[in-house]
Amino acid sequence: MKYNNNSSRFIKSTFFSLLICGSISAQTTEKIVKEKINILKIEIRKAQSKKINTLKEETALRTAEIFLDYAKWDDDNFETNKKSFALVNAYKKEADKYAKMLPDFERKEMAIMLDDAISELQQIATGKIKRLPTPKIDWSKTDVNKDEITFAGKPVFLTDWTWKPAGKKYTEFHGDQDGYFLTPSYVVNENGEVNPQKLKELTTKENGSMGFIFFNHSTTPTWAKNKYPEITDGPGIKYTMYDINHPVAQKIQSDLIAAVVPLMAGKQYTKLGYMLCNEPHWNTIQKTWASAPISDLAVLDFKKWLEKRHGNIDEVNELWKTNFSNFETMVVPKDIIESQQGTATWFDFESYNMDRVTNWFSFLQKEVKKYDPNARTHMKIMPNLWTENKRDHGIDMEALTRNSDIIGNDCSTGGPWMWGKPKEWEKNFNFDWVEMCMSYDFYKSISPDKIMFNTEGHFLSTGKYRDLYQTKEYVRCNYWQAYVHGLTAIQTWYWARREDGSSRKSEDSNGYAASNNHQPRVVNEVHATILDLNSISDKIMELQRQEKPIRIFYTKASSINKPTHMDDIFKAYQKVFFEGTPIGFATKGIIENNDNKTWETILITKTPFAFETDIKALQSYIDTGGVVIMDKESLKTDEYGRPLQTSLKDSKGKVIVVESLNEMKNKAFSILKEKNKLPALNVKESNGLEQKGCDWRVLSDKNGNSFLNIANYGKNEAAISITLADGKTPTSVVNYLTGEKLAPTFKMNINQVYFLEVK
After folding, report:
1. What phi-psi label fits residue 683: left (phi over 0), alpha (psi between -120 and 50 degrees) or beta?
2. How far is it, in rounded angstroms, from Cα 494 to Cα 512?
3. pLDDT (tens digit, 9 = 90+) per residue, 159-188?
4. How far is CA 127 from CA 51, 432, 642, 739, in A?
5. What is the Cα–Cα distance from 263 to 273, expressed in whole angstroms?
6. Measured between alpha carbons, how far is 681 from 688 in angstroms, rounded to an integer?
7. Is pLDDT of 649 > 70?
C-alpha cells in the first residue's frame, strides 16, 4: 500500500468521522490500526536501509502491538471496565459511556500515534528534518558515576514502569529495570532465620540489568506480633506498620539484611540502590490523615532526647511552661494538637520525630553497608513533605537526602483535581509544576553530585488527578523538565495490565481507569521523550550542573514553627524562577558542606525563626564576600521564640534589607548583572497574564553560540522574543533536535518544549 501525507490525513479524518458517527465496528478500527502498523513497518525498513535511526518508530510499533491486545481485552470486558470507571470521580457518572467507548478510544490513539511516527520518519528520510543519534541502551551494561548513569561512555537517562510485565516484548523498548522485593515477614522466627525459598531465589538470581532493591515495611512477622504485641504501636501509617523504636523491629531488619545483602552485593540489579523505605511518614497531628501517636518506647527515647538537648529540666520547664521535677517523671505528648504550633513543646516534639526517623534510616543504611560497602541507599520520599507546609511527619528532607547515596523520591505533578475548588496555581499555569521544580532544585542544592531516582513517578496521574484525554505535549513537558531539573531515572506509576490485557486486580482501584493503562499515545510519548533527552544527554547534564547563583534560605526553625512557611518560600521562589537563572537553596548544612563560591546572593524572606547556628553559617558566607538580601521580618528569634543573640553584619560581603519581594528580586538580578552572571540570551515572554509561565535556561559554548531550553507551563499560549545579551537579534534560531528553523520571535503552545541553538 502506497502511503503519503495526504492519504494519512484522509485515513485519520475518515477514522474520526466513523468514530463520531458510531458506525464503525471494532473489527474495522482494529483493521485500520493494523494497516498503519504495516505502513510503519515498511517505512522503518526503508529508513534502516538508509542508516536512519528508527528507535522511536520501533517503540511506537511495539506500543501499538501491545495496546491492540489490550483494546481487544477491553472489547470483551465491558462490565469490568465499567466498574473501574465508576470508582473514579471524574468519570463515575458516565462509567457506562467510557467503558463502551474505551476500546475504540485506544485504537484511535494508536492511529494518531502511528500517523505521527510515519510522518516524522518520512520527513527525516526526505531531509526535511534531521535526527540526532540515540543509543539503544543495554541496561545490563549501564553504570553509576557520581551524578550520572552512563552507557557506552556517555550519560544516559532511564525510564521504566511499576509492575510492567517481564519478557522481551515489554523490556526491549519500554525499560528493562531489574531488582528484588524484601519485607520483614521473610524473617520466619526469633532466631533470625530467613525464608529459605527467598534465599534460594537470590542465590540463583542472575546478575541481571540495572535495578533496585525494594525494602517494604508493611508486614510484621506473625511470631513477632504474637510475642511482642506492642511492636505495632506508633507505626508510620500506611507503609511502615511497626514501631521503629522497638528493639525487636531493629533485630528483624538486621537479621534480614545479614541474610540477603551478601547474596546481592555487587550485582547489576542493585546498582540503582537499596530503597530503604516506601513513602516514609510518621504523621503526629491529632485527627489528621495517617496520624498515629508515638509508642511508649518512643516516649522514653523522647525524654532522653530532651535531656541531651536541654541539659536540665529547669530549661525545659521554662520553655514548656511546666513544672516537672525530672526527666524520668515528666509527661510528654505522644501526639500533638495543631493549635500548639509555634510553642516550645511543638518544636521539640516535631524535631525529635525527625531525629528518630533520621536515626532509623542511618541504622538501616549502616546495616546494608556492613555487607555491601559499595551499596547505594535511598528512600522513596514524597517531596510534598517538604514543599507543603506540614512538618509533623518526621521527615527531615535535608538530612535524609545528604545521608543517602542516591536522591530518592516519588515526585508528582498534575492538572486540575477531579474534585474541589480550583487551586491557586490554576490561575496562571496549565499544571502543578511546583513540587517537581522546587523540590528537585532543593535536592540538587543539597547533593549536586548524586543521581536522582524517582521510584514512583506520578507525572501522569495521581489519586487526585486523572485525564483520559491527556496530550503528548503534557507528557513531554513534565518528563523533559524533570530531567532538566535534576532527574536521572524514573519508574512511572504504573503499568497495571498483564500480558493478556487484564489488570493486576487494579480494576478494584480508583487509580486504574483513565490512566496510562488506557493511553497508548501517552505511554509512547514517555519513551519518545527519553529517547530525545538521550540524544542530547551531555547538554542536559550541563543544564543539571549549572551554577545556581541565587539561593533561597531555608531553616527548620521557621518551617516547623510557622503554619504557612513553605507558602512564603514558594512565593520568593516563583518570583525569581521564570527569569532564566537556575535557582538553588541555602541552609546551614548546604553553606557548610557545599562550595558556595559561585553563589552571588542568598535571599531570606519571612523567616522569623532561626537557629543561632544559622546565623553563624550565614555570617561565614558574608565574610567570604557573599551578599544576603533579606526582609525586615526575618532572623528575629531562635527556634523557641527567644531573641537571637547575634545578627548579620557587613564584612567582605554585605547585608541588604528590603521592603518587598519585588525589591528583593530586583536587587538580586542587579547583582547578577554586575557580576556578568545573567543568561547569555534575553528572553521576553507575553502570555496575556501578569505571571510569566515559561521556564528557560541557557547554555553557551566556547564559540559564543547558545542553547536555549524553554518550556511553557502557563495556561495560555506564549509569545517569545529572543535577543542576544547585547540586545542584537540572533542570526539563527534552530530546533536543535530536528534542524527546523525558527524566527527570533515565535509562539509557544501550552506545554510546548523547545531545545534551540541560537547564534
Report:
1. beta
2. 9
3. 999 999 999 999 999 999 999 999 999 999
4. 13, 38, 70, 10
5. 14
6. 22
7. yes
550-553 β-sheet, strand order: 583-586, 550-553, 601-604, 627-631, 654-658
d(CA 164, CA 174): 9
At position 385, the amino acid (one-letter code) is: L
Question: How many helices (H) and strands (E) in the chain?
Answer: 23, 24
CA distance linking residue 277 with residue 283, whole number of Å: 16
- State the pTM of this model: 0.96
pLDDT tens digits, 388-401: 999 999 999 999 99
CA gap 409, 391 in Å, rounded = 17
| Closest to 90 (Cα-Cα) out of 493, 471, 468 | 468
CA nearest to 665, candidates 567, 575, 582, 565? 575
Containing H/E element for 753?
A: strand 753-758
Q: What amino acid occupies position 556?
A: K
What is the arrangement of strands in the sheet containing 274-278, beginning at the earlier edge strand? Answer: 178-182, 211-215, 274-278, 377-380
Using alpha carbons only, give the angle 118, 124, 129 rounded to the nearest 5 degrees: 120
Integer angstrom CA distances of residue 689 from 527, 694, 715, 718: 33, 12, 9, 10
Provide the residue type at 279 as one letter: E
> What would the grid cell of residue 659 be?
521592603
Question: What is the torsional sign of CA 376, 379, 384, 386?
Answer: negative
* Interatomic CA distance for residues 72 and 76, integer angstroms: 7
